[in-house]
Specification:
Order of helices and strands: EEEHHEHEHEEEEH
CATH architecture: 3-Layer(aba) Sandwich
Number of strands: 9
Enzyme class: oxidoreductase
Oligomer: single chain
Protein name: thioredoxin-dependent peroxiredoxin
EC number: 1.11.1.24
Distance between the termini: 31 Å
Structural class: alpha/beta
Subunit structure: Monomer.
CATH class: Alpha Beta
Low-confidence stretches: none
Keywords: Antioxidant, Disulfide bond, Oxidoreductase, Peroxidase, Redox-active center
Number of domains: 1
Length: 157
C-alpha cells in the first residue's frame, strides 16, 4: 500500500533523468525551498498551460528562494521538445523508473476516462522546505491560478 505523504513528512528520496542527460535528486534540492509539480503529459493543453504559468513566474520563485521542478513520465527527449516548443524556463525531470517517486507518492495511479482504465499521473504539487520536508501539498490540481497560489505559499513560508 502506498504511504500518504503530507505536510511535515520528509519527501521521499529520488533520482530522475533531466532533459540534458543528467540527473537530479532530492539531495540537489537541499538548502532552499523546492516546488515539484507532477503533471500527466508534455504538450497537452493543461500541462502546457501549467508549465508556461510556472515558467512565467520563475523569476518570482527564484526571489522567494524556491526551485521549480516539473515531473512527468515522459522521456528526456520529449521534455527537450516540450521546452523548446514553448520556451519553458522551468526544469523538467523524467520519473520513468518503475516504483519511482510518483509511484511512491501515489500520484501515478490507475485512472478512468470514457470507460477505459489506464495508469496516469494525477496533477499534484509539493512545496518542500530547505530540510526536504513537505510544507504544503496540492492534490488533484486545477491549472487556472495554480502557479500563483504556489508562489504565494512559497513566499509565506
Amino acid at each position: 500500500m502506498t504511504k500518504t505523504y503530507g505536510e511535515g513528512d520528509a519527501f521521499p528520496d529520488f533520482s530522475m533523468e533531466t532533459p540534458d542527460g543528467g540527473t537530479i535528486s532530492k539531495a540537489d534540492l537541499k538548502g532552499g525551498k523546492a516546488v515539484l509539480f507532477f503533471y500527466p503529459k508534455d504538450n497537452t493543453p493543461g500541462c502546457t498551460t501549467e508549465a508556461k504559468d510556472f515558467s512565467e513566474l520563475k523569476g518570482e520563485f527564484d526571489k522567494a528562494g524556491a526551485r521549480l521542478l516539473g515531473v512527468s513520465k515522459d522521456s528526456a527527449k520529449k521534455h527537450q521538445n516540450f521546452i523548446a516548443k514553448h520556451d519553458l524556463t522551468v526544469e523538467l525531470a523524467t520519473d520513468a523508473a518503475e516504483n519511482g517517486v510518483s509511484d511512491e507518492l501515489g500520484v501515478w495511479t490507475e485512472k478512468q476516462m470514457y470507460g477505459k482504465t489506464f495508469m496516469g499521473m494525477v496533477r499534484s504539487t509539493y512545496l518542500l522546505g530547505d530540510d526536504g520536508k513537505i510544507l504544503r501539498v496540492w492534490p488533484k490540481v486545477k491549472v487556472k491560478g495554480h502557479a500563483q497560489e504556489v508562489l504565494d505559499a512559497a513566499r509565506s513560508t
